[in-house]
Amino acid sequence: SCPKIKLNNGVEIPILGLGTWQSKPNEVATAVEYALKEVGYRHLDCAWMYGNEKEVGEGIRKSGVPRSEIFITSKLWCTEHQRVEAAIDESLANLGIDYLDLYLIHWPIHLNPNGNHPTFPTLPDGKRDVLYDWKLKDTWAQLEAVLKKGKVKAIGVSNFSKRILETEILPYATVVPAVNQLEIHLYNPQHNLIEYLRSKGIVPQAYSPLGSTNSPLLTDETASAIASKHGLQTADVLLGYLVEKEIVTLPKSVTPARIASNYTGALAAASKLTKEDVEKLDGVAASGKQKRLITPPWPVDLGFENWPGQ
Ligand code: A2P
């Protein structure tokens, strides 16, 4: 079974989870059922914004795996910062469950809830409709309240830089975020931010650990050479590299063979990688390959190193 990590509130999280961003509604139910029933995944990473939570819920029920054995995460979309509990209720209803294991603020950005588009409101000049004056501590206080009520077992953030954590969350928080979910992979390893998170007891989670769609990581020379040396696939090494660092890793796939190999391959790679392999992989981004692969559609300085356009 999958190794677990203890969060700062004692809740245990399986180190591998199935990502569901960009999984089409008509594919995700089968993918989730397969992952739970046939492979042994016990962790699903979801979000209201992915538009497929109903179908994820179907997959959970079809798998026959009891709810209590599965770790389920959802996320607050950017338009919903003023109605956190209602947004959680919506995700719970969509998934067909009565509590979440983890709930995250999806981005440190509040978009206009009365804007012209339900998820990505735009202004007449084409810019995103961002409410710049909103205080994220007021969002966080609502997550703390819902945690107290028991609708969620742990709370955290996603896409938060050190600067935003230090200026907008930690000085006001009663509960320190349990996790920060970030774009973490071979070409965007975020070494400094992860070290900072560790110092605060915040567990890093990696989304797009394989580099998302049309990934340049799958043909990376260093990762491929290490993979063939150990008789592994390059994807296994990309995932095992993160697992071995105790980063919660969330590969997305709707393809049964990949859903299976990502799970078994990541665990195999995590145990086979040598200290020397890891050092080589640690240096890849700094050798000229540093690249964020996910560019959010808002022109806001979020305080990250290596943010596109800075
Ligand atoms: P698919 O879902 O069609 O199988 P990430 O987890 O970094 O976001 O990457 C997800 C992307 O990588 C998806 O396009 C997914 O395709 C593909 N993918 C997932 N697992 C593998 C794998 N083991 N080998 C190659 N591509 C993969």
TrEMBL record:
Pfam families to which the protein is assigned, alphabetical: Aldo_ket_red
Positions with a binding annotation for substrate: H106
Active site: Y50 (proton donor)
Site (Lowers pKa of active site Tyr): K75
Boundaries of every NADP-dependent oxidoreductase domain copy: 16-284
Annotated keywords: Oxidoreductase
InterPro entries in the cross-refs: AKR (IPR020471), Aldo/ket_reductase_CS (IPR018170), NAD(P)_OxRdtase_dom_sf (IPR036812), NADP_OxRdtase_dom (IPR023210)
Molecular function via GO: oxidoreductase activity, acting on the CH-OH group of donors, NAD or NADP as acceptor
Protein name: Aldo/keto reductase
